[in-house]
Amino acid sequence: MINFTQLVLASHNAGKLKELQAMLGGAVQLRSVGEFSQVEPEETGLSFVENAILKARNAARLSGLPALADDSGLAVDFLGGAPGIYSARYADGQGDAANNAKLLDALQGVPDEQRGAQFVCVLALVRHANDPLPILCEGLWHGRILHAASGAHGFGYDPLFWVPERNCSSAELDPTQKNQLSHRARAMALLRQRLSLA
Q1: Taking the model in full, what pTM does it have?
Q2: Closest Cα partner for 116 from 77, 74, 163, 157?
Q3: Which segments are annotated as binding site for substrate?
């Protein structure tokens, strides 16, 4: 069993911090790396795993605390797994609305049966910046891409991601439901087991 009371989250995204803290529960306090630095590391990895480790090591180095990083994104089958690790900056860093518009444009005229997609989340936890054995947990959430945005909850690609088991978009789920089903929820469930928090 690994015992942490505080972890620094390698993200400046307040939505992600709130979502992951809710999933982690009260036993561990999650702090934003933004408390220590506003500088984002360059995500030079070619996979979710590489980028998650890179971000976790950077956050541990900046804070002196054990660090948790999440690298996640949307992999669309028809697009060969794109936008993938570039999900957050798919439209050159212009934000969620631009990313969603670019994705809809790329899938123009593609029928439902070819719009399969999955949200991917890799969580990497390092005890310190040079930890030789990061804890890695992966979660996948399968669905498909809608033809138009729907719903007002969540962030990122949530309004375009159809959740078959709930018959609605991810952005139509309330946060509690999403936190039980999502790729982050699945990865976090594994992490909770590894940390004996389950």
Answers
A1: 0.90
A2: 77
A3: 11-16, 72, 155-158, 178, 183-184
Digitized pLDDT (tens) for each residue of the chain, 198 residues in all: 456 789 999 998 888 888 889 888 888 899 999 999 988 888 889 999 999 999 999 999 999 999 999 999 999 999 999 999 999 999 998 999 999 999 999 999 999 999 999 999 999 999 999 999 999 999 999 999 999 999 998 889 999 999 999 999 999 999 889 888 999 999 999 998 988 875
Q: Is the peptide bond before 83 cis (omega within 30 degrees of 0)?
A: yes
Third-level CATH fold of 6-194: Maf protein (3.90.950)
Name the residue ranges covered by the structural domains of the chain. 6-194
Nearest to 181 by CA among 196, 194, 166: 166
Q: Which residues are annotated as a binding site?
A: 11-16, 42, 71-72, 155-158, 178, 183-184
Active-site residue list: 71
